[in-house]
Amino acid sequence: MTGLRRVGPEEFVSRLDSVLDIYTAAMVPPADQLSGRRVIMGNHASHPGFTCLFAELPDGTPVGLAYGFHGVPGQWWHDVVHQAVAERHGAAGARDWLDDALELAEVHVRPGYQGAGIGRSLVLGVCAGRPERTVVLSTRDLPTAARHLYRSIGFVDLLTGFVFPGGYERYVIAGAALPLVPGRQDPAHRREGAG
Ligand SMILES: CC(C)(COP(=O)(O)OP(=O)(O)OC[C@H]1O[C@@H](n2cnc3c(N)ncnc32)[C@H](O)[C@@H]1OP(=O)(O)O)[C@@H](O)C(=O)NCCC(=O)NCCS
Fold this sequence. Notes:
Layout: E1 3-6, H1 9-14, H2 16-27, H3 34-44, E2 51-56, E3 62-70, H4 76-98, E4 101-109, H5 118-127, E5 134-140, H6 145-153, E6 156-162, E7 171-177, H7 187-194
Parallel strand pairs: 4-5
Antiparallel strand pairs: 1-2, 2-3, 3-4, 5-7, 6-7
């Protein structure tokens, strides 16, 4: 049984060891990327509107987390994605999706705890009550649990096969309008709707 707990930027920075530990278990990144990832995550905590949820066991051990912040010009991800979405959807499309957006930066659940609804609760919890017009994110362009989860919550693909500058893996840029629509978050409802 896990509970969700809101974690402020100062605690987030002080718990970066735990954050990196969950990230590493979930993503299995190359070891030489971890120190850079740690710096990036630490910087994220200073972005406007930073919000984070930990999913914790009853003894307080975190087994999952999700965090995001308000995207603004000057942030690397925001600027790169804004330009690419503008090229694909026009300047107005980029403004609609990205000029008042919660950027969902990370969502991870330890492998032993996946598939129990924690990831869904984390995403819904981070998005709940946000003032922004949209929520946007990037995720690998592969048939992953993350892709399935985001689609089932109502995210649509803004870009597919997108390669970030300096990278090589293909990503999807996805977005959803806020507030998320409750009916879309319920798989049973979706099945009834589809049936
Ligand atoms: C993505 C992730 C956070 C989801 O967390 P989770 O706690 O497992 O998610 P949930 O249990 O809430 O729901 C996952 C959904 O994906 C489905 N799912 C699980 N494994 C899947 C897989 N391999 N392929 C497709 N769908 C899958 C589940 O059935 C569930 O869908 P449903 O509610 O329609 O049945 C977690 O799998 C994870 O940490 N993955 C590795 C890291 C990662 O990719 N993070 C996201 C980066 S953008």
